[in-house]
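Handout for the seminar on molecular recognition.
Each group receives one record of this type.
Step one: identify the two inputs.
Step two: read the structure output and locate the region that could contact glutathione.
Step three: write two sentences on what you found, then compare them with the reference statements printed after the record.
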Amino acid sequence: MKLYTGDLSPYSAKVRMQIYAMGVEDIDFDLPASFFMGKLSEFSPIGRIPVLETSEGIIPESEVIAEYLDESYPERALLPATPFDRAQVRLLSRIADTYLMNNIFMALPHINRDTRVDAVRDLLMGQVKRGMGALEKHIGSGEFAIGAQLSRADCTLVPALFLCESTVPRFDVENPILATEKVAAYWARIQSNPFAARVLKEMADGLKARLDGTEMKQIQAAIAQEKAKHA
Ligand SMILES: N[C@@H](CCC(=O)N[C@@H](CS)C(=O)NCC(=O)O)C(=O)O
């Protein structure tokens, strides 16, 4: 199988963390130049990463891929034993996907102060704050987000909290983790988990490459190579 994934992409990082934690080793990682050329939708109609390519066809959407991996390797699945605990894991994953990451993504065009529409920034950052408030109520107080084992909730929360901490201040809004107790304590703890540390390093490297221009150079080289193939 092949996972179309990007270092900085939090939805991709979520699936990579799951793959690392499950110990699945037969999935290659790739990011085709078509993604940067706005042509990924020719391969996957949603046009977003991650996408898992299997022998039967493609699977887009991180949460759908996550379920597929758990069902494909049931003995390694990152879900707790009881239906209630499984529901809690799915709930935290949904809060991170929908109320944290999606709103931050929608706000990205408003990072630049010169072109920012304050009302849009305020609306979306208000939703992030509200989502963080819900997460504070639902998250557990132990080593992991839910229960005593690493679960898919941790795989979604680690990239989502990285995004909150690294990106929200760029909107001139305080990092919403700072207003929490349980989430802040969890965030401080989980970063030393080896699977979390691995994806956090990948994301930090991706962010550095974006900010220092290295990523843009790599994208331009990949696009030039792709165009040369079809010349
Ligand atoms: N709901 C999707 C979101 C995926 C997503 O937004 N991916 C971003 C990168 S993290 C992307 O591909 N953006 C490209 C675009 O919006 O065109 C999922 O859970 O996989």
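Reference statements: The two ends are 30 Å apart (CA to CA). The chain has two domains: 2-76, 83-190.
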